[in-house]
Design goal:
This protein has 356 residues and is mostly helical. The protein is built from 17 helices and no strands. The protein has one domain: Ammonium transporter fold, CATH 1.10.3430.
Amino acid sequence: MSEPKNSETKKSNANPAPNNSAERPAAPQVLPQVLVSTSPHIRGVRTTRGVMLDVCLALLPALAAAVWYFGLRALVVTAISIASCVLLEYLSRKIMKRPQTVGDLSAVVTGMLLAFNLPATLPLWMIPLGALVAIVVVKQMFGGLGQNFVNPAITARIVLMVSFAGEMTKWAPPLDGKLRWATDAVASATPLKVLSGGEMPTESLLDLFLGKHGGSLGETCALALLLGAAYLCIFKVITPLIPGFYIGTVALFAFIFGGFDWHFALAEVLGGGLILGACFMATDYSTSPIHWKGKVVFAIGCGLLTGLIRFYGNMPEGVSFSILLMNLLVPLLENLTAPKAFGKEGKHHGKTRKAS
């Protein structure tokens, strides 16, 4: 009786029971959730509000100099300009049913730059008209911040200059720190006007550097503007490429076509709105190239146009028009100077490479 048991035991050892666990299908692998979004995928800690706040802080020295030289009316002109820009941006966004962007402080920057391009004696009711052009026409009608293709403050200044040429060219002499309301408007010649006539201005280079001459609110004191520009460069809000090449091109142009006179060239740099335009308006993010090659070409173009207008145009100042014209060429400069994508360089750009 024991043998059958042994044979059964051998059979069972020879034919083991099938492993049902090996035949079971594997459990589906759970993949992590993938979020698909548009660029940019890497974001920095700097915000639009932070950048605009830095620009406002950089403009404060020039505002202090404007109050010092042109009286308390300079502060009133700046306040009305800022208030008009902020109010018009709020109302336009409300009417267009778009999210409010007043909190990003871009309207405050536009208001300050617009005021810095105006004389202290300008009638106050004209300031909201300039703000209307800058905020509503140039900025909001094209989609808001980052969508405008020209600088709002410069465009507003040009419109006011064309519309009210007499009021926009009434310059007040500096008060030298006497904080009165303002001086009486006098149609005195600015240093650039004197230079365009082939003569040297009566002010010394030191006076031109410190701002002791007639002009718009924020363009006279080169020292204050350079301090603000240095602040922006140190905190990497802007790069020195555009200001450096712009100012350098104008200085070289004036030196060559001004009889190789360095005194004349420095007077051309310090006597107008070149430093204000080069440091605070030509460097506008949405109206200037992104790549460094484009920035250099853009700045040199602004400098050449400024020199041509100053020396051969009907107006002594050409900064506003030169920046406006180069703003229109920024898309072309972007296409010509943008870095090529890897694998699409040279003659194979935009084509599929043949397999070797």
